[in-house]
Amino acid sequence: MPKLRGEAFWRETLRSAHYVVAPMVDQSELAWRLLSRRHGAQLCYTPMLHAQVFLRDANYRRENLYGEACAEDRPLIVQFCANDPEVFVQAALLAQDYCDAIDLNLGCPQMIAKRGHYGAFLQEEWDLLQRMILLANEKLSVPITCKIRVFPDIDKTVKYAQMLEKAGCQLLTVHGRTKEQKGPLAGVASWEHIQAVRKAVNIPVFANGNIQCLSDVEECIRKTGVHGVMSAEGNLHNPALFEGRNPLVWEIAEEYLEIVRKYPCPLSYVRAHLFKLWHHTLQVYQQLREELAKVKTLEGIIDVNRELKLRCQEEIANQKEGEKPKEGLPFFHWICQPYIRPGPKERCRENGDSGTEKGVRGKRALEEEEDGNSELLSKNKQKKKLRNPNKSFDPSLKPKYAKCDQCGNPKGNKCVFNMCRGCCKKRAFKEVADCAGHGLLFKTKYEKSLSWQHNQRGIQTPEISQRRDVEVGERAVLKEAGDS
Protein backbone atom coordinates (compact mmCIF):
# COMPACT_ATOMS: atom_id res chain seq x y z
CA MET A 1 0.00 0.00 0.00
CA PRO A 2 1.53 3.36 -1.02
CA LYS A 3 2.00 5.82 1.81
CA LEU A 4 -0.48 8.67 2.04
CA ARG A 5 0.63 12.21 1.38
CA GLY A 6 -0.42 15.73 2.27
CA GLU A 7 -4.10 16.24 2.98
CA ALA A 8 -4.90 12.53 2.68
CA PHE A 9 -2.22 11.73 5.29
CA TRP A 10 -3.62 14.32 7.71
CA ARG A 11 -7.23 13.30 7.12
CA GLU A 12 -6.88 9.49 7.23
CA THR A 13 -3.73 8.64 9.20
CA LEU A 14 -3.84 11.57 11.64
CA ARG A 15 -7.66 11.47 11.76
CA SER A 16 -7.99 15.18 10.94
CA ALA A 17 -6.24 16.10 14.17
CA HIS A 18 -6.77 19.71 15.29
CA TYR A 19 -5.38 19.49 18.84
CA VAL A 20 -1.71 18.55 19.00
CA VAL A 21 0.73 18.03 21.90
CA ALA A 22 4.19 19.30 20.96
CA PRO A 23 7.44 17.33 21.05
CA MET A 24 9.10 18.36 24.33
CA VAL A 25 12.46 17.08 25.54
CA ASP A 26 11.91 14.84 28.60
CA GLN A 27 8.31 16.12 28.87
CA SER A 28 6.15 14.46 26.19
CA GLU A 29 6.84 10.93 27.38
CA LEU A 30 4.22 8.16 27.11
CA ALA A 31 2.55 8.82 30.49
CA TRP A 32 2.06 12.51 29.69
CA ARG A 33 0.84 11.75 26.18
CA LEU A 34 -1.78 9.38 27.54
CA LEU A 35 -2.91 11.97 30.08
CA SER A 36 -3.19 14.60 27.35
CA ARG A 37 -5.14 12.25 25.07
CA ARG A 38 -7.64 11.62 27.88
CA HIS A 39 -8.25 15.36 27.98
CA GLY A 40 -8.75 16.24 24.35
CA ALA A 41 -5.41 15.89 22.55
CA GLN A 42 -5.86 14.19 19.16
CA LEU A 43 -2.21 13.83 18.09
CA CYS A 44 1.02 13.62 20.08
CA TYR A 45 4.72 13.79 19.30
CA THR A 46 7.47 11.94 21.15
CA PRO A 47 10.17 13.98 22.86
CA MET A 48 12.91 15.07 20.49
CA LEU A 49 15.25 12.10 19.96
CA HIS A 50 18.87 12.40 18.86
CA ALA A 51 19.17 10.44 15.59
CA GLN A 52 22.81 9.47 16.04
CA VAL A 53 22.28 8.19 19.59
CA PHE A 54 19.08 6.39 18.54
CA LEU A 55 20.99 4.66 15.76
CA ARG A 56 23.89 3.38 17.87
CA ASP A 57 22.31 2.78 21.31
CA ALA A 58 19.80 -0.05 21.75
CA ASN A 59 19.04 1.03 25.33
CA TYR A 60 18.18 4.54 24.12
CA ARG A 61 15.79 3.05 21.55
CA ARG A 62 14.15 0.84 24.14
CA GLU A 63 13.81 3.58 26.75
CA ASN A 64 12.39 6.18 24.36
CA LEU A 65 10.28 4.17 21.92
CA TYR A 66 10.52 0.39 21.78
CA GLY A 67 9.54 -0.20 25.39
CA GLU A 68 6.54 2.13 25.23
CA ALA A 69 4.24 0.39 22.73
CA CYS A 70 0.66 1.26 23.64
CA ALA A 71 -2.41 0.96 21.41
CA GLU A 72 -3.94 4.09 22.95
CA ASP A 73 -0.92 6.16 21.94
CA ARG A 74 -1.82 6.68 18.29
CA PRO A 75 -1.60 8.58 16.07
CA LEU A 76 1.98 9.30 17.05
CA ILE A 77 4.82 11.17 15.33
CA VAL A 78 8.44 10.51 16.30
CA GLN A 79 10.69 13.56 16.16
CA PHE A 80 14.43 13.44 15.51
CA CYS A 81 17.15 16.05 15.52
CA ALA A 82 19.87 15.36 12.97
CA ASN A 83 22.28 17.04 10.57
CA ASP A 84 23.34 14.09 8.42
CA PRO A 85 20.99 12.60 5.78
CA GLU A 86 22.21 9.00 6.16
CA VAL A 87 22.16 9.04 9.97
CA PHE A 88 18.70 10.63 10.01
CA VAL A 89 17.23 8.10 7.59
CA GLN A 90 18.85 5.08 9.26
CA ALA A 91 17.47 6.16 12.63
CA ALA A 92 14.05 6.81 11.09
CA LEU A 93 14.03 3.33 9.54
CA LEU A 94 14.45 1.87 13.04
CA ALA A 95 11.52 3.96 14.33
CA GLN A 96 9.03 3.88 11.46
CA ASP A 97 7.23 0.69 12.56
CA TYR A 98 6.33 2.31 15.89
CA CYS A 99 4.75 5.53 14.63
CA ASP A 100 2.66 7.19 11.93
CA ALA A 101 5.26 9.69 10.69
CA ILE A 102 8.82 10.91 11.26
CA ASP A 103 9.40 14.58 12.08
CA LEU A 104 12.64 16.49 11.51
CA ASN A 105 13.29 19.06 14.22
CA LEU A 106 14.21 22.39 12.61
CA GLY A 107 12.86 24.52 15.43
CA CYS A 108 14.94 23.97 18.58
CA PRO A 109 16.59 27.32 19.46
CA GLN A 110 18.52 26.23 22.56
CA MET A 111 22.30 26.47 22.99
CA ILE A 112 22.62 22.67 22.96
CA ALA A 113 21.15 22.71 19.45
CA LYS A 114 23.69 25.31 18.40
CA ARG A 115 26.56 23.24 19.79
CA GLY A 116 25.19 20.07 18.19
CA HIS A 117 24.39 21.87 14.93
CA TYR A 118 20.74 20.87 14.62
CA GLY A 119 17.25 22.30 15.14
CA ALA A 120 16.74 25.94 14.18
CA PHE A 121 20.47 26.31 13.51
CA LEU A 122 20.06 24.41 10.24
CA GLN A 123 17.50 26.82 8.81
CA GLU A 124 20.05 28.56 6.57
CA GLU A 125 21.41 25.27 5.13
CA TRP A 126 18.75 24.64 2.50
CA ASP A 127 20.83 22.24 0.38
CA LEU A 128 21.44 19.99 3.38
CA LEU A 129 17.78 20.05 4.40
CA GLN A 130 16.67 19.21 0.86
CA ARG A 131 18.96 16.19 0.80
CA MET A 132 17.75 15.00 4.20
CA ILE A 133 14.07 15.24 3.32
CA LEU A 134 14.46 13.87 -0.21
CA LEU A 135 16.26 10.79 1.10
CA ALA A 136 13.76 10.28 3.92
CA ASN A 137 10.82 10.67 1.56
CA GLU A 138 12.37 8.06 -0.75
CA LYS A 139 13.39 5.47 1.86
CA LEU A 140 10.72 5.61 4.58
CA SER A 141 7.39 3.80 4.54
CA VAL A 142 5.81 6.60 6.59
CA PRO A 143 5.56 10.31 5.70
CA ILE A 144 8.20 12.85 6.65
CA THR A 145 7.14 16.06 8.43
CA CYS A 146 9.03 19.14 9.68
CA LYS A 147 8.74 21.58 12.56
CA ILE A 148 10.29 24.97 11.87
CA ARG A 149 10.74 28.45 13.28
CA VAL A 150 10.21 31.54 11.15
CA PHE A 151 12.65 34.07 9.75
CA PRO A 152 12.05 37.75 10.61
CA ASP A 153 11.14 38.26 6.96
CA ILE A 154 7.79 36.74 5.92
CA ASP A 155 8.82 36.24 2.27
CA LYS A 156 11.92 34.27 3.26
CA THR A 157 9.83 32.17 5.63
CA VAL A 158 7.40 31.37 2.81
CA LYS A 159 10.24 30.37 0.44
CA TYR A 160 11.70 28.21 3.22
CA ALA A 161 8.38 26.40 3.65
CA GLN A 162 7.97 25.92 -0.09
CA MET A 163 11.47 24.46 -0.35
CA LEU A 164 10.64 21.90 2.37
CA GLU A 165 7.37 21.01 0.64
CA LYS A 166 9.10 20.53 -2.69
CA ALA A 167 11.72 18.27 -1.07
CA GLY A 168 8.98 15.93 0.19
CA CYS A 169 7.70 17.26 3.53
CA GLN A 170 4.08 16.10 3.94
CA LEU A 171 3.08 18.27 6.93
CA LEU A 172 4.62 21.43 8.32
CA THR A 173 4.43 22.79 11.85
CA VAL A 174 5.29 26.49 12.03
CA HIS A 175 6.34 28.02 15.33
CA GLY A 176 5.71 31.73 14.82
CA ARG A 177 8.91 32.88 16.56
CA THR A 178 12.46 33.30 15.33
CA LYS A 179 15.28 31.26 16.83
CA GLU A 180 16.35 34.33 18.83
CA GLN A 181 12.93 34.55 20.54
CA LYS A 182 13.31 32.29 23.57
CA GLY A 183 13.19 32.43 27.36
CA PRO A 184 12.37 35.89 28.70
CA LEU A 185 12.83 37.26 25.16
CA ALA A 186 10.21 34.95 23.66
CA GLY A 187 7.62 37.67 23.07
CA VAL A 188 4.52 37.04 20.96
CA ALA A 189 4.49 34.51 18.11
CA SER A 190 3.64 35.93 14.70
CA TRP A 191 0.44 34.43 13.33
CA GLU A 192 0.97 36.57 10.21
CA HIS A 193 3.97 34.42 9.29
CA ILE A 194 1.95 31.26 9.87
CA GLN A 195 -0.95 32.53 7.81
CA ALA A 196 1.40 33.40 4.93
CA VAL A 197 2.91 29.91 4.98
CA ARG A 198 -0.53 28.28 5.09
CA LYS A 199 -1.59 30.17 1.97
CA ALA A 200 1.65 29.42 0.11
CA VAL A 201 1.86 25.62 0.51
CA ASN A 202 -0.41 22.75 -0.46
CA ILE A 203 0.39 20.48 2.49
CA PRO A 204 -1.29 20.59 5.93
CA VAL A 205 0.07 23.19 8.35
CA PHE A 206 0.01 23.21 12.16
CA ALA A 207 0.47 26.45 14.10
CA ASN A 208 2.54 26.75 17.27
CA GLY A 209 2.82 29.76 19.61
CA ASN A 210 0.53 31.98 21.77
CA ILE A 211 -1.66 29.03 22.87
CA GLN A 212 -2.78 29.31 26.49
CA CYS A 213 -6.41 28.16 26.39
CA LEU A 214 -9.01 26.66 24.04
CA SER A 215 -10.20 30.07 22.87
CA ASP A 216 -6.64 30.76 21.64
CA VAL A 217 -6.77 27.54 19.63
CA GLU A 218 -10.05 28.51 18.00
CA GLU A 219 -8.85 32.05 17.28
CA CYS A 220 -5.59 30.78 15.77
CA ILE A 221 -7.41 28.41 13.40
CA ARG A 222 -9.80 31.17 12.41
CA LYS A 223 -7.09 33.76 11.74
CA THR A 224 -4.46 31.57 10.09
CA GLY A 225 -6.55 28.86 8.42
CA VAL A 226 -4.26 26.10 9.70
CA HIS A 227 -5.30 22.46 9.98
CA GLY A 228 -4.37 22.14 13.64
CA VAL A 229 -2.76 23.87 16.59
CA MET A 230 0.17 22.59 18.64
CA SER A 231 0.68 23.44 22.32
CA ALA A 232 3.74 22.98 24.51
CA GLU A 233 3.84 25.23 27.60
CA GLY A 234 0.07 25.66 27.64
CA ASN A 235 -0.33 21.88 27.72
CA LEU A 236 2.26 21.47 30.49
CA HIS A 237 0.44 23.89 32.78
CA ASN A 238 -3.02 22.58 31.88
CA PRO A 239 -3.23 19.20 30.11
CA ALA A 240 -7.01 19.72 29.88
CA LEU A 241 -6.47 22.79 27.69
CA PHE A 242 -7.99 21.15 24.60
CA GLU A 243 -11.12 20.28 26.62
CA GLY A 244 -11.60 23.91 27.51
CA ARG A 245 -11.46 23.07 31.23
CA ASN A 246 -9.41 24.34 34.14
CA PRO A 247 -9.45 21.44 36.62
CA LEU A 248 -8.11 21.37 40.16
CA VAL A 249 -4.38 20.86 39.98
CA TRP A 250 -4.23 17.97 42.43
CA GLU A 251 -6.83 16.02 40.43
CA ILE A 252 -4.72 16.22 37.27
CA ALA A 253 -1.56 15.45 39.24
CA GLU A 254 -3.13 12.37 40.86
CA GLU A 255 -4.33 11.13 37.47
CA TYR A 256 -0.88 11.59 35.96
CA LEU A 257 0.83 9.79 38.84
CA GLU A 258 -1.51 6.82 38.42
CA ILE A 259 -0.55 6.58 34.75
CA VAL A 260 3.13 6.74 35.72
CA ARG A 261 2.60 3.71 37.97
CA LYS A 262 1.48 1.75 34.92
CA TYR A 263 3.94 3.29 32.45
CA PRO A 264 7.04 4.23 34.48
CA CYS A 265 9.40 6.99 33.37
CA PRO A 266 12.44 8.69 34.97
CA LEU A 267 11.62 10.47 38.20
CA SER A 268 13.08 13.69 36.80
CA TYR A 269 10.29 13.76 34.20
CA VAL A 270 7.62 13.35 36.88
CA ARG A 271 9.12 16.03 39.09
CA ALA A 272 9.38 18.46 36.18
CA HIS A 273 5.72 17.92 35.29
CA LEU A 274 4.60 18.63 38.85
CA PHE A 275 6.69 21.78 38.98
CA LYS A 276 4.74 22.98 35.93
CA LEU A 277 1.32 21.86 37.15
CA TRP A 278 1.85 23.29 40.62
CA HIS A 279 3.74 26.37 39.41
CA HIS A 280 1.51 29.01 41.00
CA THR A 281 0.85 27.02 44.17
CA LEU A 282 4.53 26.35 44.78
CA GLN A 283 5.12 30.09 44.94
CA VAL A 284 2.91 30.02 48.01
CA TYR A 285 4.19 26.84 49.67
CA GLN A 286 7.92 27.21 49.16
CA GLN A 287 8.85 24.61 51.77
CA LEU A 288 6.97 21.91 49.88
CA ARG A 289 8.57 23.10 46.68
CA GLU A 290 11.96 22.30 48.20
CA GLU A 291 10.69 18.90 49.35
CA LEU A 292 9.49 18.11 45.84
CA ALA A 293 12.93 19.04 44.50
CA LYS A 294 14.69 16.66 46.91
CA VAL A 295 12.38 13.63 46.94
CA LYS A 296 13.92 10.43 45.54
CA THR A 297 10.96 8.09 44.93
CA LEU A 298 7.59 8.10 43.21
CA GLU A 299 5.91 7.41 46.55
CA GLY A 300 7.68 10.43 47.98
CA ILE A 301 6.35 12.59 45.15
CA ILE A 302 2.85 11.24 45.80
CA ASP A 303 3.21 12.21 49.46
CA VAL A 304 4.24 15.77 48.56
CA ASN A 305 1.30 15.99 46.16
CA ARG A 306 -1.02 14.80 48.92
CA GLU A 307 0.32 17.41 51.36
CA LEU A 308 -0.12 20.18 48.79
CA LYS A 309 -3.68 19.04 48.24
CA LEU A 310 -4.44 19.17 51.99
CA ARG A 311 -2.99 22.66 52.32
CA CYS A 312 -5.01 23.93 49.39
CA GLN A 313 -8.19 22.36 50.72
CA GLU A 314 -7.54 24.00 54.09
CA GLU A 315 -6.99 27.33 52.34
CA ILE A 316 -10.25 26.88 50.41
CA ALA A 317 -12.12 26.10 53.66
CA ASN A 318 -10.82 29.33 55.25
CA GLN A 319 -11.52 31.43 52.17
CA LYS A 320 -13.57 34.56 52.68
CA GLU A 321 -16.65 35.18 50.59
CA GLY A 322 -15.91 37.34 47.56
CA GLU A 323 -12.15 36.86 47.85
CA LYS A 324 -10.34 37.13 44.51
CA PRO A 325 -7.16 35.48 43.19
CA LYS A 326 -3.93 37.26 44.07
CA GLU A 327 -1.10 38.49 41.87
CA GLY A 328 -3.43 39.11 38.96
CA LEU A 329 -4.05 35.41 38.26
CA PRO A 330 -7.26 34.58 36.36
CA PHE A 331 -8.00 31.74 38.83
CA PHE A 332 -6.92 30.76 42.33
CA HIS A 333 -3.47 29.19 42.41
CA TRP A 334 -4.82 25.64 42.94
CA ILE A 335 -6.55 25.65 39.53
CA CYS A 336 -4.78 24.71 36.28
CA GLN A 337 -4.15 27.91 34.36
CA PRO A 338 -1.68 29.51 31.95
CA TYR A 339 1.69 30.76 33.01
CA ILE A 340 2.64 33.97 31.24
CA ARG A 341 6.40 34.06 30.84
CA PRO A 342 7.62 37.43 32.14
CA GLY A 343 9.90 39.72 30.18
CA PRO A 344 13.40 40.59 31.42
CA LYS A 345 12.23 43.52 33.57
CA GLU A 346 9.09 41.84 34.86
CA ARG A 347 10.98 38.76 36.09
CA CYS A 348 12.49 40.64 39.02
CA ARG A 349 9.08 41.26 40.59
CA GLU A 350 7.13 38.10 39.83
CA ASN A 351 5.79 36.64 43.10
CA GLY A 352 8.65 38.16 45.00
CA ASP A 353 6.79 38.50 48.32
CA SER A 354 3.43 36.82 47.71
CA GLY A 355 1.83 33.85 49.42
CA THR A 356 0.96 32.65 52.86
CA GLU A 357 4.49 31.73 53.87
CA LYS A 358 5.81 35.27 54.10
CA GLY A 359 9.47 36.02 53.99
CA VAL A 360 10.15 33.14 51.58
CA ARG A 361 11.28 34.37 48.23
CA GLY A 362 9.52 33.37 45.02
CA LYS A 363 11.10 31.00 42.55
CA ARG A 364 11.85 33.71 40.02
CA ALA A 365 12.57 36.62 42.35
CA LEU A 366 15.63 38.27 40.88
CA GLU A 367 16.28 41.26 43.14
CA GLU A 368 19.28 40.81 45.36
CA GLU A 369 20.17 43.62 47.73
CA GLU A 370 23.88 43.55 48.33
CA ASP A 371 25.75 46.62 49.48
CA GLY A 372 22.63 48.70 48.90
CA ASN A 373 22.43 47.85 45.18
CA SER A 374 20.02 45.66 43.22
CA GLU A 375 21.62 43.00 41.08
CA LEU A 376 19.74 40.92 38.52
CA LEU A 377 20.55 37.25 38.95
CA SER A 378 20.09 34.38 36.52
CA LYS A 379 17.86 31.45 37.43
CA ASN A 380 20.88 29.26 38.26
CA LYS A 381 22.26 31.92 40.61
CA GLN A 382 18.85 32.19 42.26
CA LYS A 383 18.93 28.46 43.01
CA LYS A 384 22.45 28.73 44.45
CA LYS A 385 21.30 31.66 46.58
CA LEU A 386 18.37 29.65 47.94
CA ARG A 387 20.72 26.82 48.93
CA ASN A 388 23.28 29.22 50.42
CA PRO A 389 21.78 32.60 51.45
CA ASN A 390 25.25 33.95 52.33
CA LYS A 391 26.63 33.35 48.85
CA SER A 392 27.79 36.48 47.07
CA PHE A 393 28.04 36.99 43.32
CA ASP A 394 29.99 40.24 43.54
CA PRO A 395 32.91 39.89 41.07
CA SER A 396 35.13 42.09 43.26
CA LEU A 397 34.90 39.51 46.07
CA LYS A 398 36.09 36.58 43.98
CA PRO A 399 39.53 35.22 44.92
CA LYS A 400 42.41 36.31 42.70
CA TYR A 401 44.41 33.51 41.11
CA ALA A 402 48.01 33.63 39.93
CA LYS A 403 48.26 33.17 36.17
CA CYS A 404 49.97 30.45 34.19
CA ASP A 405 53.36 31.57 32.79
CA GLN A 406 52.41 30.13 29.42
CA CYS A 407 48.77 30.93 28.62
CA GLY A 408 47.32 33.22 31.30
CA ASN A 409 44.84 30.74 32.78
CA PRO A 410 44.93 30.19 36.57
CA LYS A 411 48.05 28.19 37.46
CA GLY A 412 48.14 25.23 39.80
CA ASN A 413 49.01 26.30 43.34
CA LYS A 414 51.63 23.54 43.69
CA CYS A 415 52.77 23.29 40.09
CA VAL A 416 56.55 23.03 39.81
CA PHE A 417 56.46 24.92 36.49
CA ASN A 418 54.00 27.64 37.59
CA MET A 419 51.57 26.61 34.87
CA CYS A 420 47.96 25.50 34.42
CA ARG A 421 47.41 21.75 34.09
CA GLY A 422 47.24 21.77 30.29
CA CYS A 423 50.52 23.64 29.81
CA CYS A 424 52.16 21.71 32.63
CA LYS A 425 51.24 18.38 31.02
CA LYS A 426 52.78 19.39 27.70
CA ARG A 427 56.03 20.57 29.31
CA ALA A 428 56.32 17.61 31.68
CA PHE A 429 55.85 15.20 28.75
CA LYS A 430 58.39 17.02 26.61
CA GLU A 431 61.02 17.14 29.37
CA VAL A 432 60.11 13.73 30.89
CA ALA A 433 59.57 15.40 34.26
CA ASP A 434 57.22 15.01 37.24
CA CYS A 435 54.79 17.55 38.69
CA ALA A 436 53.37 16.37 41.99
CA GLY A 437 51.05 19.38 42.14
CA HIS A 438 49.17 18.18 39.07
CA GLY A 439 49.74 14.48 39.68
CA LEU A 440 51.86 14.10 36.52
CA LEU A 441 54.55 11.39 36.84
CA PHE A 442 56.20 11.08 33.42
CA LYS A 443 59.74 10.77 34.84
CA THR A 444 58.75 8.25 37.51
CA LYS A 445 56.86 6.07 35.05
CA TYR A 446 59.72 6.21 32.54
CA GLU A 447 62.23 5.10 35.17
CA LYS A 448 59.94 2.27 36.26
CA SER A 449 59.62 1.20 32.63
CA LEU A 450 63.41 1.06 32.21
CA SER A 451 63.76 -0.90 35.45
CA TRP A 452 61.12 -3.39 34.33
CA GLN A 453 62.81 -3.90 30.94
CA HIS A 454 66.16 -4.50 32.64
CA ASN A 455 64.63 -7.07 35.00
CA GLN A 456 62.93 -8.82 32.09
CA ARG A 457 66.27 -9.24 30.31
CA GLY A 458 67.82 -10.59 33.52
CA ILE A 459 65.01 -13.14 33.92
CA GLN A 460 65.12 -14.33 30.31
CA THR A 461 68.90 -15.18 30.28
CA PRO A 462 68.85 -18.06 32.86
CA GLU A 463 65.76 -19.52 31.27
CA ILE A 464 67.38 -19.60 27.85
CA SER A 465 70.53 -21.19 29.30
CA GLN A 466 68.52 -23.82 31.14
CA ARG A 467 66.50 -24.67 28.01
CA ARG A 468 69.71 -25.09 26.01
CA ASP A 469 71.20 -27.43 28.68
CA VAL A 470 68.09 -29.59 28.52
CA GLU A 471 68.24 -29.77 24.72
CA VAL A 472 71.96 -30.77 24.83
CA GLY A 473 71.21 -33.46 27.39
CA GLU A 474 68.37 -34.87 25.30
CA ARG A 475 70.58 -35.07 22.21
CA ALA A 476 73.27 -36.86 24.21
CA VAL A 477 70.78 -39.47 25.48
CA LEU A 478 69.43 -40.07 21.96
CA LYS A 479 72.93 -40.42 20.56
CA GLU A 480 73.86 -42.90 23.27
CA ALA A 481 70.73 -44.94 22.57
CA GLY A 482 71.54 -44.94 18.87
CA ASP A 483 75.11 -46.17 19.47
CA SER A 484 73.87 -49.05 21.57
UniProtKB/TrEMBL annotation:
<dbReference type="InterPro" id="IPR013785">
    <property type="entry name" value="Aldolase_TIM"/>
</dbReference>
<keyword id="KW-0288">FMN</keyword>
<feature type="compositionally biased region" description="Basic and acidic residues">
    <location>
        <begin position="346"/>
        <end position="366"/>
    </location>
</feature>
<dbReference type="Pfam" id="PF01207">
    <property type="entry name" value="Dus"/>
</dbReference>
<dbReference type="InterPro" id="IPR035587">
    <property type="entry name" value="DUS-like_FMN-bd"/>
</dbReference>
<dbReference type="GO" id="GO:0005737">
    <property type="term" value="C:cytoplasm"/>
</dbReference>
<feature type="domain" description="DUS-like FMN-binding">
    <location>
        <begin position="21"/>
        <end position="311"/>
    </location>
</feature>
<keyword id="KW-0285">Flavoprotein</keyword>
<feature type="region of interest" description="Disordered">
    <location>
        <begin position="346"/>
        <end position="394"/>
    </location>
</feature>
<dbReference type="GO" id="GO:0005634">
    <property type="term" value="C:nucleus"/>
</dbReference>
<dbReference type="GO" id="GO:0050660">
    <property type="term" value="F:flavin adenine dinucleotide binding"/>
</dbReference>
<keyword id="KW-0560">Oxidoreductase</keyword>
<keyword id="KW-0520">NAD</keyword>
<dbReference type="InterPro" id="IPR018517">
    <property type="entry name" value="tRNA_hU_synthase_CS"/>
</dbReference>
<protein>
    <recommendedName>
        <fullName>tRNA-dihydrouridine(16/17) synthase [NAD(P)(+)]-like</fullName>
        <ecNumber>1.3.1.88</ecNumber>
    </recommendedName>
</protein>
<dbReference type="Pfam" id="PF05142">
    <property type="entry name" value="DUF702"/>
</dbReference>
<comment type="similarity">
    <text>Belongs to the Dus family. Dus1 subfamily.</text>
</comment>
<keyword id="KW-0539">Nucleus</keyword>
<keyword id="KW-0521">NADP</keyword>
<keyword id="KW-0819">tRNA processing</keyword>
<keyword id="KW-0963">Cytoplasm</keyword>
<dbReference type="GO" id="GO:0017150">
    <property type="term" value="F:tRNA dihydrouridine synthase activity"/>
</dbReference>
<comment type="function">
    <text>Catalyzes the synthesis of dihydrouridine, a modified base found in the D-loop of most tRNAs. Specifically modifies U16 and U17 in cytoplasmic tRNAs. Affects the level of some mature tRNA and thereby the total cellular translation.</text>
</comment>
